[in-house]
Amino acid sequence: MTKVHNFSAGPCILPQEVLKKASEAVINFNNLNLSLIEISHRSKDFVEVMDNATSLVKGVLNVPDGYQVVYLGGGASLGFLISAMNFMKQGGKGAYINTGTWANKAIKEAGLLGNVDVIASSKENNFNYIPKSYNVPEDADYLHYTSNNTIFGTQFKSIPETDKMLICDMSSDIFSKPIDVSKFDLIYAGAQKNLGPAGSTLYIIKEESLGLTGRVIPSMLDLQIHIAKESMFNTPPVFPIYVNMLTLEWLKNLGGVEKMGQLNRAKADLLYTEIDRNPLFEGFAKTEDRSDMNVTFNLTDNSHKERFDLLWKAANINGLNGHRSVGGYRASIYNALPIESVQVLVDVMKQLNT
Ligand code: PMP
């Protein structure tokens, strides 16, 4: 098979060994002569998968006592609503930092339930930076932010300070580096970047922060129910959860999030150095807010576009086109993308300049 350098934004590259093991389990899981996807989710073999997939999250992220981990369906898009449902008091208010598309969608869903205060936004500059100054209103129930904007290529470099509850959509940078989970009341993340295939969403929840809203929460949106049922209130997405488990095992064996953070920094440095050095390219995001996961950049002169596109496609690079709201290029360099692939892209960029 020809090696493809997969810079897709999500669903995205997963480790080869994970894909291999996952494909084997689809045919014959645990030597049961049955497929993983044709056994009961309540069977001993699958319950073990769920337990492992949950405890690996706790181990890898050093999740403190008092927190629960659940896997649900619905993507992070349902997380926008679930977070507000479970944390915004009846008649209460959520404070939001608007860093573009995904934050915007979270704001819209929360607005269906109550008051939303957008306390900072980088909209006036097409979201090319992370707003740094804001005040969380006294009457807000929580502060919500998106740690990494997958489309614009911006990333919070530190956790916002607040004495309110803190909620984060970490879909596109969870497991990319160590995080202090104890600062958060809720972390949610669609799995299809650093964790596994699309179809499962990870929630890390501070249990004592639940049950305070005074609202009636439909069962499927109620995190307390999902915690009590250990992610099995309804049939869970068994295959995605199995792949999540394999990816977390891969990550742990590799040295965990500490090591992953170093590898990701090295990849991002390599690519941003070339963007800054090469007069034919310019970065989209402000330097101090650049993402280590999604590198957004443009050509300084679009007359080179045809040649550049031919060059990277000939180098077996996939998924480099920017999102339509930004244009240009986006190289997503998630955990499973090797630095060798980044080097191939950098070589192509250098070649354009000769
Ligand atoms: N938040 C972020 C930061 C994302 O990147 C995405 C998807 N790319 C979403 C939320 C929405 O996720 P889903 O498609 O799983 O609902």
Written account of the structure:
The protein is an alpha/beta fold and 354 residues long. The chain folds into 2 domains: 239 residues, Aspartate Aminotransferase, domain 2 (3-Layer(aba) Sandwich); 97 residues, Aspartate Aminotransferase, domain 1. The protein contains 9 helices and 14 strands. The chain has a 7-stranded mixed sheet, with helices on both faces. Strand 6 and strand 7 form a beta hairpin. Helix 2 packs across helix 6, helix 7 runs parallel beside helix 9 and helix 8 packs antiparallel against helix 9. The longest helix is centred in the C-terminal third of the chain and has 22 residues. It is globular. The mean pLDDT is 97. The structure holds 4'-deoxy-4'-aminopyridoxal-5'-phosphate (PMP).
Compute the number of helices: 9
Shape: globular
CATH topology of the largest domain: Aspartate Aminotransferase, domain 2
Range of strand content: 15-25%
List of distinct ligands in this structure: 4'-deoxy-4'-aminopyridoxal-5'-phosphate
Radius of gyration from CA coordinates: 21 Å
Indicate the mean pLDDT.
97
What is the straight-line distance between the termini? 30 Å
Number of domains: 2
Low-confidence stretches: none
The helix-and-strand class reads: alpha/beta
N-to-C series of helices and strands? EHHEHEHEEEEEEEHHHEEHEEH
Q: What's the β-strand tally?
A: 14
Output the strand order for the largest sheet. 2-10-9-8-5-3-4
Helix content: 25-40%
CATH class designation of the largest domain: Alpha Beta
Looking at CATH, the homologous superfamily of the largest domain is Type I PLP-dependent aspartate aminotransferase-like (Major domain)
CATH architecture term of the largest domain: 3-Layer(aba) Sandwich
Sheet of most strands: 7 strands, mixed
